[in-house]
Design a protein that fits this description.
This protein is of the alpha/beta class and 585 residues long. It has four domains: 152 residues, 3-Layer(aba) Sandwich (Rossmann fold); 85 residues; 70 residues; 209 residues, Leucine-rich repeat, LRR (right-handed beta-alpha superhelix) (Alpha-Beta Horseshoe). The chain is 33% helix and 14% strand.
Length: 585
């Protein structure tokens, strides 16, 4: 064997002396799947988009480039572009691609959570520093990782988040999108990729994809030119206006164009007048009042959130936003699904993570908030905050959604809150699996909210919730994962309450007094792990109940039953006790 090895060594020596090995590898060419997606409806083979695509791809393959900044005005298509890039480079140039939406609040804990979810990583750290160390180690694993940070409004220290961008470390690259070039300057990106508005011919082509062949008709020629010019080459504006004009007569086009020009005179901070005018036009052209109401309701949810259609339906029912023939839960759900399709066709809503969710573009959401304010419906949405908002901000609001980020200290809620116009209030303490912390609400907290119709509380302590009895106009009440004490006081809400959720809360015995809620349509007792008894006959007296989550006896109106999570029910069994005859409807 040693002689054989010696002969092989001589052979290798001869080969190395006679061969030319100055180049041992050639740059990998673009794989077929990395070519610009000319067939995609989002890109439509636009020259300006292909240029941006190629510039980003070249930068991603350059070993000297670690951070790439893509910038351009809101609605120009930055998010669509980087999402397409991410899809195409995964399992090719990069082993893993993860996306986090930064948004205006730039909440570090939230960004860490998004990255961890997409990496299937369970963060165990108590603090942001601990979480950052875990992310750093996970991303510094020898694989090629691409991090996409979308919609950045201010400088963000990547080390604080846990993204390993350092000298000598080539395992991680970052792509950042922003409307503001100077933000990328502060981030010290290695390569800037500007994203301009569409060229004139591209704008016309995109408009045609929405409106159809009528664009080529001589009678529409001049109007098409004006519309495309007024939209300023912004895809979000062109699509919205195109959706509003589809299948309309010429006189409608002319009328719509006048409305469009009038709307452009409105000056709103942070929103391009062209974008505002086009989206306001698309909103005004909605023929269904249900669709308009649902559109404005969507801006109540957090920026870039996946909005549950089921939750949307519950809000619509509680706010009486739907028209006639929606007097049952099932009919209301069907109507909301129809309305969602209308809004998608109008380019005012986007598809969510699956068919049960929708999303709203952040630019469109800004316009929706402005429209709601013009209608006298001031909406306050704050997520990731660590303290209660200013008093005057709350008092003028008609709807408030507040999600608090719990780190080391719980925010202090005011003893009482005077909000005479408030119809919807959502307060959530962001869940942390390491902590059982709850927000404390004083008994006087709800005394100044006489008009409240929707109240959603998550991880709140109220012992007992006496002040809730004063909210006689409530139609929807969610007390999820709360510490409540005796909830028999809820019987005083029998005039209007239709939707009640006690999901995950600490109730032991379902109070018999609840049978007095004669208007009740939906009851959710999901994950009530401490629930031991539902008194005989209580649920059967809720004659209008249509949806019951977790547990059931017979109801004349029942159309749906979900059984899940109750592990220690003692009073009733789940097995042979139930028979098909109990579920005739």
């Amino acid at each position: 064997m040693s002689k054989e090895a010696e002969n092989k060594m001589k052979e290798v020596k001869n080969l190395t002396q006679s061969g030319n090995f100055s180049i041992v590898a050639h740059p990998k060419p673009f794989a077929q799947e990395l070519q610009f997606p000319s067939s995609s409806a989002n890109y439509a083979n636009f020259e300006s988009r292909e240029l941006v695509f190629n510039n980003i791809m070249v930068a991603l393959q350059d070993s000297n480039v670690k951070m790439i900044g893509v910038y351009g005005t809101g609605g120009v298509g930055k998010t669509t572009m980087v999402e397409e890039i991410g899809k195409q480079v995964k399992n090719g140039l990069f082993d893993e691609v993860v996306v986090a939406v930064v948004s205006q609040d730039a909440n570090v804990s939230n960004i860490q959570g998004q990255l961890a979810d997409r990496l299937s990583l369970k963060l165990k750290g108590e603090t942001e520093v601990g979480k950052a160390n875990e992310l750093w180690n996970r991303l510094n694993n020898g694989k090629k990782n691409l991090i996409i940070l979308d919609d950045m409004w201010q400088e963000l220290k990547l080390k604080t988040v846990g993204i390993p961008i350092t000298d000598g470390n080539n395992c991680c690259k970052v792509v950042i999108t922003s409307r503001i070039r100077c933000v990328l300057d502060k981030m010290h990106v290695d390569r800037y990729v500007p994203m301009q508005v569409l060229l004139e011919k591209e704008a016309r082509a995109l408009f045609k994809t929405m409106v159809g062949n009528s664009v080529d008709s001589p009678e529409f020629h001049d109007i098409v030119d004006v519309v495309c010019k007024e939209c300023g080459g912004l895809p979000v504006a062109i699509l919205a206006v195109g959706a509003a004009l589809k299948d309309k007569k010429k006189y409608v086009w002319e009328d719509v164009l006048d409305q469009f020009k009038d709307s452009m005179l409105k000056n709103i901070v942070g929103i391009d007048p062209k974008v505002y005018a086009s989206l306001k036009l698309s909103y005004d052209q909605l023929e269904s009042s249900d669709a308009k109401s649902c559109f404005l309701l969507c801006c109540f949810f957090p920026e870039d959130a996946n909005i549950s259609i089921e939750v949307l339906t519950r809000h619509c029912i509680a706010r009486s936003l739907l028209g006639q023939n929606t007097n049952t839960q099932r009919r209301a759900s069907c109507r909301v699904l129809t309305v969602v399709d209308i809004l998608k066709d109008a380019c005012l809503l986007l598809a969510g993570k699956d068919e049960n969710f929708v999303k709203m573009h952040d630019v469109i959401r800004d316009v929706a908030l402005s429209i709601a304010k013009d209608d006298g419906k001031e909406i306050l949405v704050k997520h990731g905050d660590k303290k209660w908002p200013e008093k005057d901000t709350c008092e003028s609001s008609s709807a408030m959604s507040l999600m608090f980020d719990y780190t080391l200290e719980l925010p202090k809620l005011p003893d009482d809150l005077v909000c005479p116009q408030l119809h919807t209030l959502t307060i959530v303490l962001e869940w942390d699996w390491r902590s059982d912390a709850l927000l404390n609400v004083s008994d006087r907290f709800f005394s100044g909210m006489e008009k409240l119709t929707i109240l959603e509380l998550n991880r709140i302590c109220m012992l007992p919730p006496l002040s809730l009895a004063n909210l006689v106009n409530l139609r929807m009440l969610r007390l999820d994962y709360c510490e409540l004490g005796d909830v028999a006081i809820l019987k005083d809400l029998n005039n209007n309450l239709e939707i009640l959720s006690l999901q995950g809360s600490n109730i032991n015995v379902f109070p018999s007094e609840i049978e007095q809620l004669t208007r009740h349509r939906l009851l959710d007792l999901g994950n009530c792990e401490k629930l031991t008894e539902i008194p005989q006959g209580v649920l059967s007296n809720l004659s209008r109940l249509e949806e019951l989550y977790i547990f059931d006896v017979t109801f004349p109106a029942l159309e749906r039953l979900d059984i899940d999570g109750l592990t220690i029910i003692k009073r009733y069994g789940i097995g042979n006790y139930f028979h098909q005859s109990l579920f005739n409807n």
